[in-house]
Design brief:
Layout (H helix, E strand, L loop, with lengths): L5 H14 L31 H11 L25 E4 L9 E4 L4 E7 L2 E10 L7 E10 L7 H6 L21 E7 L2 E10 L8 E3 L3 E4 H9 L6 E4 L3
Family: Belongs to the YkuD family.
Enzyme class: transferase
Pathway: Cell wall biogenesis; peptidoglycan biosynthesis
Length: about 240
């Protein structure tokens, strides 16, 4: 079952920003975005591709998104391990096409495509003590969502009180450009899959249970994920 604790995670992200440290979720200086094009040519057959070509393709995929409500600059792809670039991979599962599978042990999120393949995204996940596993579903979707710091965070950092009624969506908002809110049995679990602003956070455990994708990856996944989509979080 999913354990409660996302509010702490959201607070950690907001607290990090207020302190000015790169906890992986609030600094938008190297915010990610890009076209919906995938790296499928690099994935299924395990083709041999030069580093130069890989980086060139990644630069296109993780380029700027000037047409967003809050224009998103390109990511510095040198800060992302290439194994976490979006790509199509072989993935055998009994789950239906469209299902989202989170693999926290390997810092990946998969969208099942069917026919033995999946779109794979690099992710950040819960830190030690905040990992969870189980089945959920997307109960709600948000674009540029409002973020409200937990009361516990406001007690630790009184300066966060100015957001007690919510921080509007924007480049500095911890939830980022897109958010998938996870539910179980009709109830919000307080966990999300959200857009991370920090490329260096991908491949690490930093949250209190939420799962972060690079902003352009999150936008790509969000566009292909309807409400009620099944989400499976594997044991770490």
């Amino acid at each position: 079952m999913i354990r409660d604790g996302w509010n702490a995670g959201a607070g950690d992200r907001g607290e990090a920003a207020l302190r000015g440290r790169p906890a992986g979720l609030l600094s938008r200086r190297s915010f990610l975005a890009g076209s919906a094009a995938g790296l499928s040519a690099l994935g299924l057959a395990g083709c041999a591709t030069s580093d130069g070509l890989l980086l060139a393709e990644a630069a296109k995929v993780y380029g700027p998104m000037p047409d967003e409500k809050f224009p998103i600059p390109a990511v510095d792809i040198s800060k992302v391990n290439p194994k976490y670039y979006r790509r199509t991979v072989r993935y055998d599962t009994k789950e239906a096409a469209g299902t989202i599978i989170v693999d926290p042990s390997n810092y990946y999120v998969y969208r099942v495509e069917g026919d033995g393949s999946a779109t794979r995204y690099g992710a950040n996940v819960g830190r030690d003590g905040f990992l969870w596993s189980g089945d959920a579903y997307v109960g709600r979707k948000s674009e540029w969502a409002t973020w409200t710091p937990p009361k516990e965070m406001i007690k630790r950092q009184p300066e966060a009180a100015k957001y007690a009624r919510g921080m509007p969506g924007g480049l500095d908002n911890p939830l980022g450009a897109r958010t998938l809110h996870l539910y179980q049995n009709g109830a919000y679990t307080l966990y999300t899959i959200y857009a991370s602003s920090d490329p260096e956070s991908i491949g690490s455990g930093i949250t209190s249970g939420c799962v972060g994708l690079l902003s352009q990856d999150m936008i790509h996944l969000y566009a292909r994920t309807p409400v009620k989509t099944k989400v499976v979080v594997l044991p770490a």
